[in-house]
Amino acid sequence: MWSLLVLLQILLVKETAFGIKLTEVRVPKHTIKDHSVRLECHYEMEGEALYAVKWYKDGHEFYRYVPRDSPPVQIFPREGINVDVQNSTNDQVVLDPIELASTGKYRCEVSAEAPSFQTVSDHGEMTVVVLPDEDPHISGGKPRYQLGDAVRVNCTSGRSKPAVHLTWYINSEPAEPGLVRQYEPVVSGKDKLETSILGLEFRVKPKHFKRGDMKLKCLATISTVYWKSNEESVEGDKPQKAPMLESRKAVAANTRADRVQ
Ligand SMILES: *[C@@H]1O[C@H](CO)[C@@H](O)[C@H](O)[C@H]1NC(C)=O
Ligand SMILES: *[C@@H]1O[C@H](CO)[C@@H](O)[C@H](O)[C@H]1NC(C)=O
């Protein structure tokens, strides 16, 4: 028991007496191809002298900052790594531009001078996103629908990486899973970009019309970096004559296109 207490005490002393503290390693989860990104590594030396700050991608060192060296910054070439040296310091590295091969695990390691040689490190994963080259579009809609008609439409995204996630809405409500048809994304081109397709199939019933109006919306998202939707509105001539319905192709007025990043 007594020896355990001593051991605990030694551990506690070690924690407090030698103390480089890594306060934050900030690696964005998603970045956009051809943009730049700032990787941050914040630390407190707590009385120690800094020997080096090193950055690794997937276990390979690509950036080293040693304040005693002249110049202090050293770069090691790696696939997918383009360091903006002007903007890179002891506590941040700017990569510009980001490539698909920049996807990976980034580790920042801070070490102290002799005698402690204490080393602390932490990491974050970054995924490079290629935004879709086109907005999602809705196809297969007929110009006119009557009650009892089969609606069979597809929503197709632009090419992207990773694949866009598509969701169907009928009158602003998510479509029931039983009405949705899943298809495998289509992979194309040198960069193996992906096209997502999601089908929607159902028979037109009175409940699908809100005040004689039916709205079909397809929402396309990639994590939090991409968010776009396309909407088609199907209308009845007059509420009493519900059977005759008309489909309007999405035009500027009823196409909502918001890009969030
Ligand atoms: C890098 O530095 C230049 C000026 O040297 C500045 O215009 C640019 O915004 C900086 N980029 C980043 C990502 O900090
Ligand atoms: C939707 O796309 C799938 C996959 O390409 C295709 O097999 C199907 O026929 C399409 N449906 C419509 C209504 O266009």
UniProtKB/TrEMBL annotation:
Residues 230-240 have a biased composition (Basic and acidic residues). Gene3D superfamilies: Immunoglobulins (2.60.40.10). The keyword ATP-binding does not apply. Residues 36-121 form the Ig-like domain. The keyword Disulfide bond applies. Residues 1-19 form the signal peptide. Keywords: Disulfide bond, Signal. Coiled coil: none annotated. Residues 230-261 are annotated as: Disordered. It comes from the Eukaryota. This is Ig-like domain-containing protein. It comes from Culex pipiens pipiens (Northern house mosquito). The lineage of its organism: Eukaryota, Metazoa, Ecdysozoa, Arthropoda, Hexapoda.
